[in-house]
Design a protein that fits this description.
alpha+beta, 12 helices, 19 strands, disordered N terminus, binds zinc ion
Length: about 425
Protein backbone atom coordinates (compact mmCIF):
# COMPACT_ATOMS: atom_id res chain seq x y z
CA UNK A 1 0.00 0.00 0.00
CA UNK A 2 2.26 2.80 -1.19
CA UNK A 3 -0.66 5.23 -1.14
CA UNK A 4 -0.83 5.26 2.64
CA UNK A 5 2.40 7.29 2.48
CA UNK A 6 0.32 10.28 1.33
CA UNK A 7 -1.08 11.73 4.57
CA UNK A 8 -3.85 13.83 3.01
CA UNK A 9 -5.72 10.80 1.71
CA UNK A 10 -8.54 9.02 3.48
CA UNK A 11 -8.59 5.23 3.47
CA UNK A 12 -11.39 5.23 0.89
CA UNK A 13 -9.37 7.52 -1.39
CA UNK A 14 -6.30 5.32 -1.01
CA UNK A 15 -8.42 2.26 -1.78
CA UNK A 16 -9.66 3.84 -5.02
CA UNK A 17 -6.11 4.80 -6.03
CA UNK A 18 -4.96 1.25 -5.45
CA UNK A 19 -7.84 0.03 -7.61
CA UNK A 20 -6.75 2.03 -10.68
CA UNK A 21 -5.95 -0.56 -13.34
CA UNK A 22 -3.12 1.06 -15.32
CA UNK A 23 -3.02 -1.78 -17.82
CA UNK A 24 -6.73 -1.41 -18.60
CA UNK A 25 -6.29 2.38 -18.79
CA UNK A 26 -3.69 2.06 -21.54
CA UNK A 27 -5.48 -0.76 -23.34
CA UNK A 28 -8.76 1.23 -23.38
CA UNK A 29 -6.86 4.13 -24.93
CA UNK A 30 -5.31 1.87 -27.57
CA UNK A 31 -8.73 0.38 -28.36
CA UNK A 32 -10.32 3.83 -28.64
CA UNK A 33 -7.59 5.08 -30.99
CA UNK A 34 -8.31 2.02 -33.14
CA UNK A 35 -11.87 3.32 -33.68
CA UNK A 36 -11.31 6.01 -36.37
CA UNK A 37 -13.97 8.33 -34.95
CA UNK A 38 -13.41 11.36 -37.16
CA UNK A 39 -16.09 13.90 -36.31
CA UNK A 40 -19.27 13.12 -38.27
CA UNK A 41 -18.14 9.65 -39.37
CA UNK A 42 -19.87 6.30 -38.72
CA UNK A 43 -17.01 5.41 -36.39
CA UNK A 44 -18.04 8.31 -34.14
CA UNK A 45 -21.23 6.34 -33.44
CA UNK A 46 -19.20 3.17 -32.94
CA UNK A 47 -17.13 4.96 -30.28
CA UNK A 48 -20.32 5.95 -28.45
CA UNK A 49 -21.66 2.39 -28.55
CA UNK A 50 -18.32 1.21 -27.20
CA UNK A 51 -18.55 3.70 -24.32
CA UNK A 52 -22.12 2.69 -23.47
CA UNK A 53 -21.16 -0.99 -23.37
CA UNK A 54 -18.21 -0.21 -21.08
CA UNK A 55 -20.42 1.77 -18.67
CA UNK A 56 -23.10 -0.93 -18.63
CA UNK A 57 -20.48 -3.57 -17.88
CA UNK A 58 -19.34 -1.49 -14.89
CA UNK A 59 -22.88 -1.44 -13.52
CA UNK A 60 -23.60 2.22 -14.28
CA UNK A 61 -27.16 3.38 -14.86
CA UNK A 62 -26.80 4.24 -18.56
CA UNK A 63 -28.78 6.64 -20.72
CA UNK A 64 -27.88 5.89 -24.34
CA UNK A 65 -29.97 7.73 -26.90
CA UNK A 66 -30.08 8.60 -30.56
CA UNK A 67 -29.87 12.34 -31.22
CA UNK A 68 -32.72 13.92 -33.16
CA UNK A 69 -30.50 15.90 -35.54
CA UNK A 70 -33.42 17.79 -37.12
CA UNK A 71 -34.81 19.01 -33.80
CA UNK A 72 -31.34 20.00 -32.58
CA UNK A 73 -30.54 21.94 -35.79
CA UNK A 74 -33.81 23.88 -35.48
CA UNK A 75 -33.10 24.92 -31.87
CA UNK A 76 -32.42 28.67 -31.50
CA UNK A 77 -29.17 27.99 -29.61
CA UNK A 78 -27.92 25.28 -32.01
CA UNK A 79 -24.12 25.52 -31.80
CA UNK A 80 -23.53 24.76 -35.49
CA UNK A 81 -21.73 21.84 -37.13
CA UNK A 82 -19.17 21.56 -39.90
CA UNK A 83 -19.07 17.85 -40.69
CA UNK A 84 -21.98 16.20 -42.49
CA UNK A 85 -23.56 13.78 -40.04
CA UNK A 86 -26.35 11.26 -40.62
CA UNK A 87 -26.65 10.12 -37.00
CA UNK A 88 -25.30 10.69 -33.53
CA UNK A 89 -25.63 9.21 -30.05
CA UNK A 90 -25.43 10.44 -26.49
CA UNK A 91 -23.98 8.32 -23.69
CA UNK A 92 -24.31 9.15 -19.99
CA UNK A 93 -23.61 6.79 -17.12
CA UNK A 94 -24.41 7.44 -13.45
CA UNK A 95 -23.14 5.51 -10.44
CA UNK A 96 -24.33 5.80 -6.84
CA UNK A 97 -27.52 7.00 -5.18
CA UNK A 98 -30.20 9.19 -6.79
CA UNK A 99 -29.99 12.94 -7.14
CA UNK A 100 -27.81 15.34 -9.09
CA UNK A 101 -24.30 13.94 -9.64
CA UNK A 102 -21.70 15.64 -7.45
CA UNK A 103 -19.15 15.26 -10.24
CA UNK A 104 -19.35 14.72 -13.98
CA UNK A 105 -16.28 13.62 -15.92
CA UNK A 106 -16.81 14.47 -19.58
CA UNK A 107 -14.97 13.52 -22.73
CA UNK A 108 -15.58 13.81 -26.46
CA UNK A 109 -15.03 10.73 -28.62
CA UNK A 110 -14.66 12.51 -31.97
CA UNK A 111 -11.31 13.47 -33.47
CA UNK A 112 -10.18 15.66 -36.36
CA UNK A 113 -9.11 14.13 -39.70
CA UNK A 114 -5.61 12.74 -39.99
CA UNK A 115 -4.09 14.97 -42.64
CA UNK A 116 -1.46 13.49 -44.94
CA UNK A 117 -0.87 9.86 -43.95
CA UNK A 118 2.78 10.20 -44.98
CA UNK A 119 3.37 12.30 -41.86
CA UNK A 120 2.36 9.45 -39.53
CA UNK A 121 4.53 6.64 -38.24
CA UNK A 122 4.08 3.67 -40.62
CA UNK A 123 1.40 5.78 -42.33
CA UNK A 124 -1.09 4.64 -39.67
CA UNK A 125 -2.77 7.24 -37.42
CA UNK A 126 -5.07 4.58 -35.88
CA UNK A 127 -2.40 2.18 -34.62
CA UNK A 128 -2.44 3.15 -30.94
CA UNK A 129 1.21 2.08 -30.98
CA UNK A 130 2.96 2.17 -27.60
CA UNK A 131 6.50 3.50 -28.10
CA UNK A 132 8.90 5.40 -25.85
CA UNK A 133 6.47 5.30 -22.91
CA UNK A 134 3.78 7.06 -24.95
CA UNK A 135 0.64 6.03 -26.83
CA UNK A 136 0.53 7.31 -30.41
CA UNK A 137 -2.27 8.02 -32.86
CA UNK A 138 -4.98 10.47 -33.83
CA UNK A 139 -6.89 11.39 -30.68
CA UNK A 140 -4.16 10.08 -28.36
CA UNK A 141 -4.21 13.36 -26.45
CA UNK A 142 -7.27 15.16 -27.88
CA UNK A 143 -8.93 13.55 -26.15
CA UNK A 144 -9.11 9.79 -26.02
CA UNK A 145 -6.53 9.83 -23.21
CA UNK A 146 -8.97 11.94 -21.19
CA UNK A 147 -11.88 9.66 -22.07
CA UNK A 148 -9.79 6.62 -21.06
CA UNK A 149 -8.90 8.38 -17.77
CA UNK A 150 -12.60 8.99 -17.08
CA UNK A 151 -13.37 5.30 -17.63
CA UNK A 152 -10.39 4.30 -15.46
CA UNK A 153 -11.76 6.43 -12.60
CA UNK A 154 -15.18 4.80 -13.06
CA UNK A 155 -13.61 1.34 -13.05
CA UNK A 156 -11.51 2.10 -9.95
CA UNK A 157 -14.48 3.42 -7.99
CA UNK A 158 -16.43 0.24 -8.79
CA UNK A 159 -13.49 -2.14 -8.19
CA UNK A 160 -12.53 -0.53 -4.88
CA UNK A 161 -15.88 -1.45 -3.36
CA UNK A 162 -16.32 1.99 -1.74
CA UNK A 163 -19.77 3.46 -1.17
CA UNK A 164 -20.64 6.82 -2.71
CA UNK A 165 -22.82 9.22 -0.72
CA UNK A 166 -23.50 11.27 -3.84
CA UNK A 167 -23.68 10.12 -7.48
CA UNK A 168 -20.79 10.17 -9.94
CA UNK A 169 -21.47 10.61 -13.66
CA UNK A 170 -19.55 10.05 -16.86
CA UNK A 171 -20.55 11.78 -20.11
CA UNK A 172 -19.24 10.73 -23.52
CA UNK A 173 -20.16 13.12 -26.33
CA UNK A 174 -19.76 13.47 -30.09
CA UNK A 175 -19.11 16.47 -32.32
CA UNK A 176 -16.93 18.54 -29.99
CA UNK A 177 -14.51 19.19 -32.83
CA UNK A 178 -17.15 20.61 -35.15
CA UNK A 179 -19.25 22.69 -32.79
CA UNK A 180 -20.36 20.78 -29.70
CA UNK A 181 -23.60 19.17 -30.86
CA UNK A 182 -23.09 16.22 -28.49
CA UNK A 183 -22.63 18.41 -25.40
CA UNK A 184 -25.55 20.57 -26.56
CA UNK A 185 -27.79 17.47 -26.87
CA UNK A 186 -26.64 16.15 -23.49
CA UNK A 187 -27.59 19.42 -21.82
CA UNK A 188 -30.96 19.54 -23.62
CA UNK A 189 -31.58 15.94 -22.54
CA UNK A 190 -31.50 17.31 -18.98
CA UNK A 191 -28.30 15.72 -17.70
CA UNK A 192 -26.75 17.91 -15.05
CA UNK A 193 -24.16 17.85 -12.31
CA UNK A 194 -23.04 20.04 -9.42
CA UNK A 195 -19.65 20.27 -11.11
CA UNK A 196 -17.93 18.94 -14.21
CA UNK A 197 -14.39 18.33 -15.35
CA UNK A 198 -13.78 18.02 -19.07
CA UNK A 199 -10.60 15.99 -19.39
CA UNK A 200 -9.23 17.79 -22.45
CA UNK A 201 -5.42 17.89 -22.58
CA UNK A 202 -4.09 20.62 -20.27
CA UNK A 203 -0.44 19.63 -19.77
CA UNK A 204 -0.97 19.27 -16.05
CA UNK A 205 -2.54 22.72 -15.62
CA UNK A 206 -6.09 23.62 -14.68
CA UNK A 207 -7.93 25.53 -17.39
CA UNK A 208 -10.70 27.65 -15.91
CA UNK A 209 -11.74 29.61 -19.00
CA UNK A 210 -11.95 29.22 -22.76
CA UNK A 211 -11.89 31.82 -25.45
CA UNK A 212 -14.50 31.16 -28.10
CA UNK A 213 -14.20 30.69 -31.86
CA UNK A 214 -16.67 31.62 -34.57
CA UNK A 215 -16.36 30.24 -38.08
CA UNK A 216 -16.90 32.93 -40.70
CA UNK A 217 -17.11 33.10 -44.47
CA UNK A 218 -16.22 36.12 -46.61
CA UNK A 219 -17.30 36.36 -50.25
CA UNK A 220 -15.22 38.95 -52.08
CA UNK A 221 -16.47 39.86 -55.55
CA UNK A 222 -14.30 40.57 -58.57
CA UNK A 223 -14.94 40.93 -62.31
CA UNK A 224 -13.77 38.26 -64.75
CA UNK A 225 -11.68 39.05 -67.81
CA UNK A 226 -9.09 37.28 -69.94
CA UNK A 227 -5.75 37.26 -68.14
CA UNK A 228 -4.13 38.87 -71.19
CA UNK A 229 -6.24 41.97 -70.63
CA UNK A 230 -6.61 41.83 -66.90
CA UNK A 231 -7.12 45.58 -66.56
CA UNK A 232 -10.55 45.01 -68.15
CA UNK A 233 -11.51 43.02 -65.09
CA UNK A 234 -10.99 43.33 -61.35
CA UNK A 235 -9.27 40.50 -59.51
CA UNK A 236 -11.15 39.24 -56.45
CA UNK A 237 -7.73 38.41 -55.01
CA UNK A 238 -6.62 42.05 -55.30
CA UNK A 239 -9.94 43.11 -53.79
CA UNK A 240 -9.29 40.83 -50.80
CA UNK A 241 -5.90 42.33 -49.90
CA UNK A 242 -7.18 45.44 -48.06
CA UNK A 243 -9.81 43.28 -46.35
CA UNK A 244 -7.08 40.97 -45.14
CA UNK A 245 -5.06 43.93 -43.85
CA UNK A 246 -8.13 45.15 -41.94
CA UNK A 247 -8.53 41.69 -40.38
CA UNK A 248 -4.90 41.69 -39.24
CA UNK A 249 -5.43 45.13 -37.66
CA UNK A 250 -8.63 43.98 -35.96
CA UNK A 251 -6.77 40.97 -34.54
CA UNK A 252 -4.10 43.27 -33.10
CA UNK A 253 -6.74 45.50 -31.45
CA UNK A 254 -8.66 42.57 -29.98
CA UNK A 255 -5.53 41.09 -28.39
CA UNK A 256 -4.17 44.31 -26.90
CA UNK A 257 -5.64 43.89 -23.39
CA UNK A 258 -6.25 40.20 -22.80
CA UNK A 259 -7.29 38.72 -19.44
CA UNK A 260 -4.34 37.94 -17.10
CA UNK A 261 -5.40 34.26 -17.22
CA UNK A 262 -3.79 34.28 -20.68
CA UNK A 263 -0.39 35.33 -19.31
CA UNK A 264 2.33 33.96 -21.56
CA UNK A 265 0.02 33.66 -24.57
CA UNK A 266 0.97 36.30 -27.14
CA UNK A 267 -2.22 35.83 -29.15
CA UNK A 268 -5.18 34.49 -27.16
CA UNK A 269 -7.82 35.60 -29.68
CA UNK A 270 -6.48 34.82 -33.15
CA UNK A 271 -8.36 35.64 -36.32
CA UNK A 272 -7.08 32.93 -38.58
CA UNK A 273 -7.83 32.49 -42.26
CA UNK A 274 -8.13 28.75 -42.89
CA UNK A 275 -9.15 28.45 -46.55
CA UNK A 276 -8.95 30.80 -49.52
CA UNK A 277 -10.39 29.91 -52.92
CA UNK A 278 -10.45 32.18 -55.93
CA UNK A 279 -10.81 31.73 -59.64
CA UNK A 280 -11.31 28.67 -61.79
CA UNK A 281 -8.85 29.11 -64.65
CA UNK A 282 -5.17 30.06 -64.79
CA UNK A 283 -5.59 32.69 -67.50
CA UNK A 284 -8.81 34.24 -66.21
CA UNK A 285 -9.10 37.10 -63.75
CA UNK A 286 -10.91 35.63 -60.70
CA UNK A 287 -14.42 36.98 -60.24
CA UNK A 288 -14.93 35.60 -56.74
CA UNK A 289 -12.81 34.87 -53.70
CA UNK A 290 -14.33 32.83 -50.88
CA UNK A 291 -12.46 32.53 -47.63
CA UNK A 292 -13.25 30.75 -44.36
CA UNK A 293 -11.66 31.52 -41.04
CA UNK A 294 -12.11 31.57 -37.32
CA UNK A 295 -12.60 34.60 -35.15
CA UNK A 296 -11.51 34.36 -31.50
CA UNK A 297 -14.17 35.40 -28.97
CA UNK A 298 -12.92 37.23 -25.89
CA UNK A 299 -13.73 36.07 -22.35
CA UNK A 300 -17.12 37.47 -21.28
CA UNK A 301 -17.77 38.81 -24.80
CA UNK A 302 -21.11 37.76 -26.31
CA UNK A 303 -20.70 36.09 -29.73
CA UNK A 304 -23.03 38.73 -31.19
CA UNK A 305 -20.52 41.43 -30.19
CA UNK A 306 -17.62 39.50 -31.70
CA UNK A 307 -19.53 39.02 -34.97
CA UNK A 308 -20.41 42.71 -35.02
CA UNK A 309 -16.72 43.66 -34.60
CA UNK A 310 -15.67 41.69 -37.68
CA UNK A 311 -18.67 42.84 -39.72
CA UNK A 312 -17.89 46.47 -38.80
CA UNK A 313 -14.22 46.15 -39.75
CA UNK A 314 -15.16 44.62 -43.13
CA UNK A 315 -17.84 47.27 -43.75
CA UNK A 316 -15.37 50.07 -42.96
CA UNK A 317 -12.75 48.81 -45.39
CA UNK A 318 -15.43 48.40 -48.07
CA UNK A 319 -16.49 52.01 -47.51
CA UNK A 320 -12.91 53.24 -48.10
CA UNK A 321 -12.21 51.12 -51.19
CA UNK A 322 -13.51 52.30 -54.60
CA UNK A 323 -14.17 48.77 -55.90
CA UNK A 324 -15.56 47.31 -52.67
CA UNK A 325 -17.81 50.32 -52.10
CA UNK A 326 -19.87 49.22 -55.12
CA UNK A 327 -19.15 45.50 -54.68
CA UNK A 328 -19.19 44.91 -50.93
CA UNK A 329 -17.87 41.81 -49.21
CA UNK A 330 -20.54 39.49 -47.82
CA UNK A 331 -19.94 38.11 -44.32
CA UNK A 332 -21.66 34.89 -43.19
CA UNK A 333 -21.34 32.65 -40.12
CA UNK A 334 -21.57 29.01 -41.21
CA UNK A 335 -20.10 26.14 -39.19
CA UNK A 336 -19.03 25.93 -35.56
CA UNK A 337 -19.97 28.80 -33.26
CA UNK A 338 -18.16 28.49 -29.93
CA UNK A 339 -18.92 31.14 -27.34
CA UNK A 340 -16.27 31.78 -24.70
CA UNK A 341 -16.86 30.46 -21.20
CA UNK A 342 -15.40 30.36 -17.72
CA UNK A 343 -15.99 28.97 -14.26
CA UNK A 344 -16.50 31.41 -11.41
CA UNK A 345 -13.03 31.49 -9.81
CA UNK A 346 -14.61 31.26 -6.33
CA UNK A 347 -16.43 28.01 -7.14
CA UNK A 348 -15.28 25.25 -4.74
CA UNK A 349 -14.48 22.93 -7.68
CA UNK A 350 -11.38 25.00 -8.50
CA UNK A 351 -9.84 24.48 -5.05
CA UNK A 352 -10.93 20.85 -4.96
CA UNK A 353 -9.12 20.10 -8.21
CA UNK A 354 -6.01 21.97 -7.05
CA UNK A 355 -5.97 20.11 -3.71
CA UNK A 356 -6.54 16.71 -5.38
CA UNK A 357 -3.52 17.33 -7.59
CA UNK A 358 -1.51 18.41 -4.55
CA UNK A 359 -2.55 15.24 -2.67
CA UNK A 360 -1.58 12.79 -5.42
CA UNK A 361 1.22 14.58 -7.25
CA UNK A 362 2.62 16.79 -4.49
CA UNK A 363 2.72 19.89 -6.66
CA UNK A 364 0.95 23.20 -7.01
CA UNK A 365 -0.81 24.02 -10.27
CA UNK A 366 -1.55 27.33 -11.88
CA UNK A 367 -4.87 28.40 -13.29
CA UNK A 368 -4.99 29.45 -16.90
CA UNK A 369 -7.27 30.13 -19.85
CA UNK A 370 -7.18 28.30 -23.16
CA UNK A 371 -7.41 30.10 -26.50
CA UNK A 372 -9.70 27.51 -28.09
CA UNK A 373 -13.44 26.95 -27.80
CA UNK A 374 -14.72 23.73 -26.26
CA UNK A 375 -17.74 22.07 -24.70
CA UNK A 376 -17.01 24.06 -21.53
CA UNK A 377 -19.17 26.96 -22.68
CA UNK A 378 -22.18 24.66 -23.21
CA UNK A 379 -21.82 23.07 -19.77
CA UNK A 380 -21.30 26.40 -17.96
CA UNK A 381 -23.76 28.34 -20.17
CA UNK A 382 -26.71 26.19 -21.20
CA UNK A 383 -26.17 23.65 -18.41
CA UNK A 384 -25.29 26.10 -15.63
CA UNK A 385 -22.71 23.54 -14.41
CA UNK A 386 -19.44 24.87 -12.94
CA UNK A 387 -16.94 23.30 -15.34
CA UNK A 388 -13.19 23.35 -15.93
CA UNK A 389 -10.61 21.43 -17.94
CA UNK A 390 -8.04 19.15 -16.39
CA UNK A 391 -6.74 16.23 -18.41
CA UNK A 392 -3.77 14.30 -19.75
CA UNK A 393 -1.73 15.36 -22.77
CA UNK A 394 -0.11 18.36 -24.35
CA UNK A 395 -2.59 20.36 -26.40
CA UNK A 396 0.24 21.46 -28.71
CA UNK A 397 0.30 17.89 -30.04
CA UNK A 398 -3.45 17.89 -30.71
CA UNK A 399 -4.68 17.97 -34.31
CA UNK A 400 -1.13 17.41 -35.64
CA UNK A 401 0.65 14.39 -37.04
CA UNK A 402 2.45 12.19 -34.50
CA UNK A 403 -0.15 13.00 -31.86
CA UNK A 404 0.74 11.15 -28.64
CA UNK A 405 0.29 11.08 -24.88
CA UNK A 406 2.84 10.23 -22.22
CA UNK A 407 1.71 7.19 -20.22
CA UNK A 408 3.17 8.41 -16.91
CA UNK A 409 1.28 11.69 -17.28
CA UNK A 410 -1.90 9.79 -18.17
CA UNK A 411 -1.60 7.75 -14.97
CA UNK A 412 -0.82 10.80 -12.81
CA UNK A 413 -3.81 12.71 -14.11
CA UNK A 414 -6.10 9.71 -13.67
CA UNK A 415 -5.03 9.44 -10.02
CA UNK A 416 -5.83 13.10 -9.35
CA UNK A 417 -9.22 12.73 -11.02
CA UNK A 418 -9.92 9.62 -8.94
CA UNK A 419 -9.23 11.49 -5.69
CA UNK A 420 -11.40 14.37 -6.87
CA UNK A 421 -14.26 11.94 -7.62
CA UNK A 422 -13.85 10.27 -4.22
CA UNK A 423 -14.00 13.59 -2.40
CA UNK A 424 -16.85 15.17 -4.29
CA UNK A 425 -18.95 12.02 -4.21
CA UNK A 426 -18.27 11.28 -0.53
CA UNK A 427 -16.58 7.89 -1.00
CA UNK A 428 -16.33 5.84 2.18
CA UNK A 429 -15.54 2.27 3.15
ZN1 LIG B 1 -10.65 18.16 -27.61
Amino acid sequence: MTDTLIPELTRAEARILDAIDEHALVSDLVTMIGIPSVTGSDAESEAQHWHARRLLALGFDVDFWKLDLGVLAAHPEFPGTEAPRVEGYGAVGVLGPGGVPALVLQGHVDVVPTGDLGNWHERNPWSGAVKDDAVHGRGACDMKAGAAANLAVARAVVASGVTLERPFALHAVISEEDGGLGAFATMLRGHRGEAAVITEPTSGNVVVANAGALTFELRVPGRAAHGSSRLAGHSALDAFLPVYAAIVELERERNAHADPLFDGNALPYPISIGTVRAGDWASSVPDLLVTHGRLGVQLDEPPTAARAALERAVAEVCERDPWLRDNPVEVAWPGGQFASGRIDSTDPLVDEVVSSIRATEGREVSLSAAPYGSDLRLYTGLGGIPTLHYGPGDVRLAHGPREQVDIAELVRTTRSLAVLAARRCGAHL
